[in-house]
Amino acid sequence: MSAESNDDVTTPGRRRPSRSRGDQQEIALLDSAQRLLTAMTPLAEITIERIASGAGLSRPSVYFYFDSKEAILRAVLQRLTRTLSAEIRDQPGRTFADTLDTFLEVVSHTWRTQPALVCAAFELAVRDAAFRQSWQDYFLNCGEVLVIAAERDQAAGLLPNFGATRPALIALCFMYERNCYLLFSREHQPEEEDELFALLRGLFRRAVGAAG
């Protein structure tokens, strides 16, 4: 899965609220920065010059769209969170088990195919308050989707009502991503990924009293 180009949302540091029809330069800058992140380029080594070069643009032209390197990286990673949030959404009629499966599949696939990009999101969130809010909103969205599905199953008698579903599931969403970061930011074996995802799946199910 790759982050789709949906860049009409205004973010801090961007020079324009949206791109003009047919104008591909802004998206080229975002794609250039994303390639650098995906190639595991340290944040400190990503410069305006490198981003501009990868987009086939000059350094001065960058400032028509963004006022800093951080603004470009923020926009790239906000694009990622919007894509993930669009895939992890509630669908009326779906059970908690099905909703959980979708959530886990999306998250695990993203970590396995774009580990450097998601690790960069974690690291940028530490130092960039504007992106940190977007990152937290993404986790909260994931948690709310799971909560809605769990409460629907509880109302239908498919799950027991523990009374603390919301805080438990939201906390697990944050814990899930944190543990993924700790694993994927270091050298590891594929078996460790399978073990982590299986463990976390079990924790989510136990949090709502699901069997198995």
TrEMBL record:
DNA-binding region, residue range(s): 47-66
Keyword DNA-binding annotated: yes
Molecular function GO terms recorded: DNA-binding transcription factor activity; transcription cis-regulatory region binding
Keywords per UniProt: DNA-binding
Region ranges (Disordered): 1-24
Chain ranges of the HTH tetR-type domain: 23-84
Presence of the UniProt keyword DNA-binding in the record: yes
Xref: InterPro entries: Homeodomain-like_sf (IPR009057), HTH-type_TetR-like_transc_reg (IPR050109), HTH_TetR (IPR001647), Tet_transcr_reg_TetR-rel_C_sf (IPR036271)
SUPFAM superfamilies: Homeodomain-like (SSF46689), Tetracyclin repressor-like, C-terminal domain (SSF48498)
Coiled coil (UniProt feature): none
PANTHER family recorded: HTH-TYPE TRANSCRIPTIONAL REGULATOR ETHR, HTH-TYPE TRANSCRIPTIONAL REGULATOR RUTR
Annotated protein name in UniProt: TetR/AcrR family transcriptional regulator
Native source organism of the sequence: Prauserella cavernicola
Lineage summary: Bacteria, Bacillati, Actinomycetota, Actinomycetes, Pseudonocardiales
